[in-house]
User: Fold this.
Amino acid sequence: MSNILVTRSSMPGYEEYCEEIKGLWESHWLTNMGVKHKQLQAELQTFLDVPHVVLYTNGHLALENVLAAMNLPKGGEVITSPFTFASTTHAIVRNGLQPVFCDINKQDYTIDVSKIESLITDKTCAIVPVHVYGNVCNIEEIDRIAKKYGLRVIYDAAHAFGVTYKGVSTACFGDASMFSFHATKVFNTIEGGAVCFSDDSLVQTLNDMKNFGIRGPETVEFVGGNAKMNEFQAAMGICNLRHLDEEIAKRKAIVEHYRARLSGNEGIILCQAQPDVKTNYAYFPVVFEPSLFGATRNEVFDRLAENGIGARKYFYPLTNTFDCFHGAYDVNQTPVALHISKRVLTLPLYADLSSADVDRICDVILNCRK
Ligand code: T4K
Assistant:
């Protein structure tokens, strides 16, 4: 029996991609905002229904750059959640900002909006909420708090490509949203990412940041870095965007199969569908409550591994416990995040995962019950 990993990159047909990149052999133009870059950017603006899309070589640099573009005061406090990938917290810290960790809620694992206001101080300058697993944060409440206290809101929407709330794309909320187009995402450009926003004045800054501040052959007006998406990445995006609906439909069928097999079992907690949200089925998190299920998350993880199934503990450990922070943060400030991070497993999910494999995974899990 073949091994199953937590995900598997979606790829267009080989011929389709070759056709897409053929022109590059004629032009020899491989990067620096070429035709494929321009085309993907325009297609994403339409698809995401957002005024501006700035493409990046990966999601992390997109997040670092958009935070820098907000001109937040050095040492300013940024409220965020620790139940996320390293990138979110690192982007804040690498900008010379101070993360202030807010707990998550038990329903969808996004930031607990009822706890944000108590964390606001004179130094608070921004909120970086995470649409974790593609679950949409409480947009309205975050917007209300941000307006009341004059805070910037930058969404880490790495998981939420193609997700809408009340019919509006997640690209449109807050001051800006960052998407990841990494190989493991619902939509990938191999590596890649984007910042989406509506403020016209941000366009120049973000373009400067990703291309050394070069504005013309003899004009450098900004101390920028290099974070450009290249033509091969953009071509992959153009191809994958054509198949996105099919990709999401296949993921939906897999998630429904998982739900049918796993829901109703004591000690297994599944995320419920969010009202008014059209999801992208990015991840399938399952929380194991050992006292009811009869096995711990780690026991289930190990049993799956013994059977060649690579589930992942996204997101354990919490970012506020990372060794690189040398105990700077008190994890007891985020007890729900701590609780969930010790119990959650994300199960394999990708478009071509077969029904038989879903059954195999569920059989192993359900056999862990004591
Ligand atoms: N914010 C959030 C909330 C994020 O989750 C992420 C990234 C970011 C920001 C930053 O965005 P990027 O800068 O990455 O664009 C993976 C991804 O590398 C990372 O993009 C993602 N989040 C994170 C949740 O997952 P790892 O270290 O778990 O990846 P890895 O190499 O173990 O791969 C996981 C599985 O994916 C493999 O078992 C097999 C499959 N895979 C992997 C690769 C590299 C493929 O099928 N194809 C591939 O090319 O971080």
